[in-house]
Amino acid sequence: MRRTGTEQTTRRRWHEVWKEQCEAAGSIRLQYGVASAFDYAVGEKLLNFAEAAEEHPEFSRALPQFFSELRRMFTPEEIKEHLARIESARLQRAMEAMDVYDPALDDLAASDAEAQRFEFVKELLTAPALGTS
Q1: What DSSP assignment string belongs to 11-44?
Q2: What percent of the chain has pLDDT over 70?
Q3: Quick one: which H or E segment has residue 56?
Q4: Within 1-133, where are the H helices?
Q5: Which of 87, 88, 66 is nearest to 132 (CA)?
Q6: Which of 40, 50, 39, 38 is nearest to 114 (CA)?
Q7: Residue 117 region by backbone torsions, left for phi larger than 0, else alpha for psi between -120 and 50, else beta
Q8: In this predicted model, what pLDDT tens digit does every residue of 32-80 receive, in sequence order?
Q9: Which of 3, 86, 113, 133 could hold 7 in an S-S bridge, CB 3.0 to 4.6 Å?
Q10: Cα–Cα distance between 28 and 13 in angstroms, integer?
């Protein structure tokens, strides 16, 4: 099946959405502070983008640029501080989930994949250098 020009353009552009998300994070930072900008850019958008990259090569190819831009936007100290905050909240939610049965939290494979994705993001955001050219 052949795609129309509009479908090709739309599909081609989705993997570039990170640029707009970084611009939005800059505005969020000015209005609401670093924590809110980091939560939006990393805790939400980067993690979703990394998940999409697992299935779509065009997202995978754009991922290093997204990481580079986020490393430019946030200082190493901000990255470490806010990753630790997000990780602490994730662990707290996991502990609470063990105390209270929630069918929505029943999918251990999804939880494991999310944890691995977070570790991947954390490793690349805190690495001394990305090794991209």
Answers
A1: HHHHTTHHHHHHHHHHHHHHHH-HHHHHIIIIII
A2: 79
A3: none
A4: 5-14, 17-32, 34-38, 47-53, 57-73, 76-99, 108-126
A5: 66
A6: 50
A7: alpha
A8: 999 999 999 999 999 999 999 999 999 999 999 999 999 999 999 999 9
A9: 3
A10: 23
Q: pLDDT exceeding 90 applies to what percent of the chain?
A: 63
Confidence bin at 91 (pLDDT 50/70/90): confident
Q: What tokens appear for 16 in the block?
A: 């570039």
Copy the structure tokens of residue 9.
């353009």
Phi and psi at 16, nearest 5°, equal: -100, 0
